[in-house]
């Protein structure tokens, strides 16, 4: 695994334009989506994504050898996001991906809209450290070790933050009882 990280780091930071473009293509959309979930604003998400890549390329040799380039990029992005939060105390609601792809009828659409709104509010109200850990694990599928590297904490604390966020969300969203298809995704993330 360490050889893979070293190869990835070398490819992403040193091997020229083609490797840099490949790295951006493989990480841009997912990083943008993470920022969009955190910031709730497409323009802010785009700015943070661009700033993260610029700072990543500028960091060059400062990347720790024990983390992948992807993890290092997210750690840089997290720091930029946190710096923005210090300067601004407003929180824009998160936009969730379309929760239901089928169209079973107007009653279901109303319920889906209510659930989306409640879920958006529940995630917005999580403390920022829990919100980061939850979004990194649930939507971006980072390992606890990667979340730990991004947040500058231990893997055990990363796991605790994820489960604490999940517990709070379960309590807030209990009236909607999301159903078995949601539980399968949660079970996959619990491992």
Automatic annotation (TrEMBL):
One of its GO terms (molecular function) is sigma factor activity. Residues 119-169 form the RNA polymerase sigma factor 70 region 4 type domain. Keywords: DNA-binding, Sigma factor, Transcription, Transcription regulation. The keyword Endoplasmic reticulum does not apply. PANTHER family: RNA POLYMERASE ECF-TYPE SIGMA FACTO (PTHR43133), RNA POLYMERASE SIGMA FACTOR HI_1459-RELATED (PTHR43133:SF8). Belongs to the sigma-70 factor family. ECF subfamily. This is ECF RNA polymerase sigma factor SigE. The gene is sigE_6.
């Amino acid at each position: 695994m360490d050889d893979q990280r070293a190869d990835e780091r070398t490819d992403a930071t040193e091997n020229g334009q083609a490797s840099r473009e490949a790295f951006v293509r493989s990480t841009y959309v997912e990083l943008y989506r993470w920022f969009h979930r955190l910031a709730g604003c497409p323009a802010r998400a785009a700015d943070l994504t661009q700033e993260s890549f610029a700072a990543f390329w500028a960091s060059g040799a400062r990347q720790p050898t024990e983390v992948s380039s992807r993890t290092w990029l997210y750690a840089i992005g997290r720091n930029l996001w946190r710096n923005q939060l210090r300067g601004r105390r407003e929180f824009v609601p998160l936009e969730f991906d379309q929760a239901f792809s089928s169209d079973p009828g107007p009653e279901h659409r109303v319920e889906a809209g209510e659930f989306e709104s409640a879920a958006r509010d529940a995630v917005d109200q999580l403390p920022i450290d829990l919100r980061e850990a939850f979004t990194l694990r649930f939507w971006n599928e980072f390992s606890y070790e990667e979340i730990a590297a991004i947040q500058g904490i231990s893997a055990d604390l990363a796991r605790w933050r994820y489960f604490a966020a999940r517990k709070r969300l379960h309590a807030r969203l209990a009236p909607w009882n999301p159903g078995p298809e949601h539980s399968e995704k949660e079970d996959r993330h619990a491992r």
